[in-house]
Amino acid sequence: MAGFRNGRGRDNRPPQQQPQQAPYGYNAAPPPHPQQQWQQPPQGRPQQGYGQQGQAYGQQGHQQQPYGEPEYFGEPYGGQHQQHAAAANNPGHTQMFSVDDPYAQGGPPPAPVPTGPRLPWKPLLSGIVLRPADTFLRMRDHAVWGPALIVTFLYGLLAIFGFDKARDEAINATLSSAIPYVLMTALGFVLGGLILGAVTHTLARQLGGDGAWQPTVGLSMLIMSITDTPRLVFALFLGGENGLVQVIGWATWLAAGALFTLMVSRSHDLPWPKALGASAIQLVALLSLIKLGTL
């Protein structure tokens, strides 16, 4: 009996230690864990999806993403995007906008700029015939009074011999009376070129052009003189009423129309229909005054 009371006869292994229960009113310390455990949502409360987490992130502030979750899941910035879209047009906020392409809507092209300094008179005269587009673009802001006045005056001196009646009168007249007659005719061509060039410039500005008047008037005088030179050369020997001279005259008049249109288009930044309309009065005046050698 004594041995039974002293514990003899039972299992001699030491008793296992039971965890001590915390006193009432105190929270027990959590057991140690080697790794952090994921916090499970409370029972009876549905877990929020990624979209709801993104909205909560934008509404409640910065919230750290769960460990191991990629950032491209969900919409973490959904709330901020909605707030930015709502306040985009309010005062104090800016919003991105697009610039319309004038070429896509058929508007006028942007204004070109001169590509270099003023051309000397030789490259200028040859460029009007061989490279008209580049020449007009380069000279759109440069006055060409010297070449324009000299070339037009020389053209006027010979233009009188391209008309049959005027040539007979100049040949049959005395030298003292023929020289003033020829000089007055040359000055008349210079004055007429100035007036017609000014009319072309005025019409181009009314149609929306932005070019300067000095290059427009000077280049128009050069175009008028250069394009009629082939007809004048043949008219000096064959007469103005010759059939070949008439054909050459029509061809050079059409070439003058093309050069006038191109020059106004480059100098005033206008599309070719408006450029042609601006130079139409000058073309009609040249046709009616010169009459292709039949005056």
Task: Output the keywords.
globular, membrane, disordered N terminus, 295 residues, Yip1_dom, transmembrane, YIP1 family protein, transmembrane helix, single chain, mainly alpha
Radius of gyration: 47 Å
The fraction of residues assigned to DSSP E strands is under 5%
Q: On the 0-100 scale, what is the average pLDDT?
A: 75
**Distance between the first and last residues' Cα:** 161 Å
* Class by SSE composition: mainly alpha
Task: Please explain how this structure is put together.
The chain has 295 residues and is mainly alpha-helical. It has helices spanning 2-5, 50-60, 78-86, 121-130, 132-138, 145-159, 164-172, 175-206, 213-238, 243-268, 272-278, 280-290. Helix 2 crosses helix 3. It is globular and about 50 Å long. It starts with a helix and ends in a 5-residue tail after the last helix. The model is unreliable at 1-10, 48-66 and 101-106 (pLDDT under 50). Residues 1-118 are annotated as: Disordered. Residues 107-117 have a biased composition (Pro residues). The chain crosses the membrane at residues 143-161, 181-204.
